[in-house]
Amino acid sequence: MLQESLGMQLATYFSDNWSAFFALGREHIEVSLLALLCSAWIGITLGYLTITYKRSEKWIVSLIQILRVVPSLAVLLLLIPLMGTGMKPALVALILLGVPPILMNTISGLNHIPLSVLESAKGAGMSDRQMMWKIKFPLAAPLILTGIKTAAIEIIASATLAAKIGAGGFGEIIFTGLGLNRIDLLLIGGGSVAILAILIGVLLDISERMLFRYQFLQR
Length: 219
What we know:
Layout: H1 2-52, H2 57-69, H3 72-83, H4 87-111, H5 115-123, H6 128-162, H7 171-180, H8 183-211, H9 213-217
Helix pairs in contact: 1-4, 1-6, 1-8, 2-4, 3-4, 4-6, 5-6, 6-8, 7-8
């Protein structure tokens, strides 16, 4: 009887709020995608600079390790006095959350290229710039993509909290459900975020298999 009632509530919500549900989904995807793109650009650029200027590696890695232990909700709340509420502080918080895994994987990928490969490239007369773009980044790309995948899932999940400061998204459904103690809204909001995260993970897995097919052929 309870399951039947819950089913009716879910059906009623989608019947009455279909357009609002899609609008919130679009907001969630937009803020997550923008945060991921900015995180990827910052993370890969910082990774490149860290490898190029070795003295900065210790400081940058230490800063990133500190960022990784700060909860995303705490970052959001700390930004409110500085930036107010809305999309901007949410975007900054999500970027701060997404940069660490991409940066760390970029550094790791560039640092673990076999020395014999680099010596061969140098022996062939490649400059440092040519080695970076034609040897190092292509070989480090699978690990960088793994960092992007980790960041994407973390950003999508944490974008739920961004609704708390007015950034919209599926988090609005979840927080409304918590306020009204409605199981149907909690299921719709939480389920939508989970499905979105799984879809992004699958898409990135497919991209990895298409871009780096040679890795899977060797297994």
